[in-house]
Specification:
168 residues; 4 helices; elongated
Amino acid sequence: DILAIYHSHPTAGPSDADKAACERTGLPWYIYSDEKIHELYPSGGKIPLLGRKFIYGILDCWTLIQDYYHYNLDITLPDFEYEERFWEKGINVYVDNYGKAGFTKVENPQEHDVLLMQLNSVIPNHGAILIEGNKIIHHLSNRLSCRDVYGGYWRFVTVAVLRHERFL
């Protein structure tokens, strides 16, 4: 069993990524920098869905989907290993794994569905969640997570609608 996470930094103190990862793992984190050990403990608090800073693999579009399902629907979605810019390497992470996470492709989107999108890519490389009022929440790199109207560009780049088995 893993009891804690320990690593070092060349700069002072825990980063935003460390703080978010501490919450996500639920484990204590110890960071050595400036000749001392900084201790982080999970607070059990929820990381807000909107206004998140993008940190690849820690706070990104997939982790937003995971947290939305956990916080709002009490559904725990699995973690998947995916490398940064996976789509440029031809790795189809979303398509290869959505069935393992309990999702099925459907035609007509409804609230809580996951929308797979292709942003300047030949394979899906972004995910959003359809929420009430024909809006989505999503998290693009170099932007804070946000809410947008689901129409125009977002509808145009949507290539699949996924519904969790609980809602079939």
